[in-house]
Fold:
Amino acid sequence: MRYLPLTPDDRAEMLGVIGAPDVDALFADVPAAARRKDLFDLPLHAGELEVERELTQLSALNRAAGAGPFFCGAGAYKHHVPATVDHIIQRSEFLTSYTPYQPEIAQGTLQVLFEFQTQVAALTGLDVANASMYDGSTACAEAVMMAQRVNRREKAILSGGLHPHYAATTQTIAHAEGMQIVRLGAAVDAEAAVIDAIDDETACVVVQTPNVFGVVTDVTKIAEAAHAKGALLIVVTTEAVSFGLLKTPGEMGADIAVAEGQSIGNALNYGGPYVGLFAVREKLVRQMPGRLCGETVDAEGRRGYVLTLSTREQHIRREKATSNICTNSGLCALAFTIHMTLLGGAGLSQLARINHAKARELKAAVGAAGLEVLTPRFFNEIAVRVKGSAAKLVDDLLADGIVAGVPYSRLDPHAGLDDVLLLCATETTTPEDIAALQAALTRKAA
Amino acid sequence: MTMQTVGRPTRPEGDVSTSGFASLTGGRGLLQDEPLIFELGGWTKTGVDLPAASEDASDLAGLTRASVDLPGLSEPEAMRHYVRLSQKNHAIDLALYPLGSCTMKHNPRLNEKVARLPGFADLHPLAPVATAQGALQLMDRLAHWLKTLTGMPAVALSPKAGAHGELCGLLCIKAAHEAAGQGHRRTVLVPTSAHGTNPATAAFVGYAVTEIAQTDDGRVDLADLAAKLGPDVAAIMVTNPNTCGLFERDVIEIARLTHDAGAYFYCDGANFNAIVGRVRPGDLGVDAMHINLHKTFSTPHGGGGPGAGPVVLSEALAAFAPAPWVVNGPDGLTLVEEAVDQAAQAFGRMSAFQGQMGMFVRAYAYMRSHGANGLRQVAEDAVLNANYIKARLSDVMTPAFPDGPCMHEALFDDAWLEGTGVTTLDFAKAMIDEGFHPMTMYFPLVVHGAMLIEPTETESKRELDRFCEALRALAATAKLGDVERFKGAPHLAPLRRLDETLAARKPKLAWKADAGVI
Structure:
């Protein structure tokens, strides 16, 4: 078997050194009733060619986002990632290393994490970012639990514009820890209802911008209202490219910013692995979850980096840790950092403007096809009202080779918004894609 | 059949840093000193060619930022920056990486290749299910393999790492207790030797944590367990093989006692690599177990993730599994994304979307490559390699549990270092100078100065011998009193020992323009 270096002779010789008659003797502690003598009912080993063939066949049953007109966003985004990114993340030293517990031989990973943290802090307009979370949704849940540690309150208010999967994840995880999660009704302009819901029991308010309907909101007033009641403001962003154009969460008064970083450096991957961004104001740093990389010096005074403030973490604090997270999204954070370094601030701004311009074209096209655009101010996503079921419309347009977007009902079947369709355009969207969509929608309407 | 062994360049005997040679620029041959990107000066540069963008964002008036103050690099500069950084890392592709409990095994590149097929990598998580049938089939096949290998009837694929899987398992258990009117059970029992994630996860779910004592032979103390199992206990969390590298001989009795007390048995599956293909956790009475695809099933660790932590579940817990899951319907496979109707007992959702699909593809390709026979050989060789290391080092180091075989990892204590002035940490750092990554140190907590060595099955005998010779030489040197070699170690790494106290006392967690270069 190609992944196993030992030869039968090696095994025999090694058993001799150990003093065991056979390999079964090494499993002597397993209760006899649980020792499986026979092979499991699964296929036997297969060569590289056979495995690649099977996987290629499975892959071919899927339609890649790049295969034709494609307008899905809603938490995951199709962007172009430079080839350099994928090359570097496949370097053995990055791909096949562990969490950098031995800093003397992990400075590569550690310096990348320090660069990543600095980039995320700058993008979100906050002071300190951690070395990544699993994804945006779990980062959101962790932020809510962090708020409880900061102000010892139990209630979290989730805006109705928060991605329903983020709300469900937060509900599941933070509720389990004993928090009361209040999710406001889903609506395009849901942020308007948030301020009235804040009271003296509120630990935190969670607001997404651009929200799941694509709406860009200035949350400054929500921050002021939250702070007046002693609550924290958590700002969620699912489309990291929007950081290139929009006012930052920090500038608008957020205490914690969490985001899905997939858009920068990472492929769609049918939902994962992605990379959660998590940034806070400096005074909150000791309540943060996850790993932090910090600067220090070595025994000869040379600058270097280490994982630090680990007394917050599970391997030191066990049941008193700020989170149970251990493995995070190191390699995805590396991909984010490389792509961000290639873009630079100037490139990200330009990329964001291109995305916004494409979405304006998209808005004009669907408007011209007779659909009602619900999103007043948007970045690269819009919500539209269709006649009848948005899910059916998506099915119908699939017959024309167009993936028209995400029916809101797929994310949140109980909201009564079955006629709302979420569409997204990015730099990968071509004028031909948009024209094809407009033509198909117009045909549908006729 | 054999495969190529991992080669390493030879280097001169002795410690080159003591030769007295110094370069004129501070350079160290091929090992380049590399500043932060923020110090490379590309504040207006970009390494990506983009079409001109419309400046018109007037519809966002008042909602935009002035600029993004981050540097950029051209493509050649970026390539060089990150390749130089990469060379400061140790990696499994360079040498044995014996981190106990971490399962640092070879990562086949076929898995990387197939995960990048457009049908997987460029597939949107909310793409219409009719356009994602191959992905759903893959998830279904992966689930079948995981269920068959563990002897468990159900699996929740969505957890994103081991600790996330623990959380999923405990949430299933909590939901099952609540459904049975047993919501008053608020305690989780965890052995002292457990991974830190176990008590942290239990606390995360709002449970109180009580420790179970360990016997002198490194196993769960059954009497202590029986005494602590009561009407308030929701679950036990036991790693098996445990973190001492030993199989819990009484595991079936542990399960029986637990179930008799009305509690569930959560098994931490971090060490599944030792028994895959030979032992099914379902036959041991386990109710829930996460499987680290990045350990047993070889998806790369990536410098700290991403991982994947699917959780297999017993019949008693299956109904509480979180959304989403794959079902086979009249129109092919479909994805249940919201718990409704017949599945109303699902406890919720672990994250957005379906889980770590990119890892599912890699793990499935690995399983298919090995097959039923190869996976059984994986466990056998992993256990054989660990016992070989234990046998070859037991006369110079002190095994924590000398009697009987170990499983996939060999655990030593620091009794043999007594009187040498060398600590476990010093010894581990000296391994770096010999070209190896240190073993896991000071874990498990139940063994003094613990050194936990997990070679995995992907090491050749030659590499194992090289490793054992290095450790034997170091042990002999420590006993001869060459303390400075150890206290000052590492001497030959890109950096010497780092000041972790300084890092924690005055945290510098981001580059700041005004602070400049130290």
Summary: Chain A touches chain B through 208 residues (CB under 8 Å).
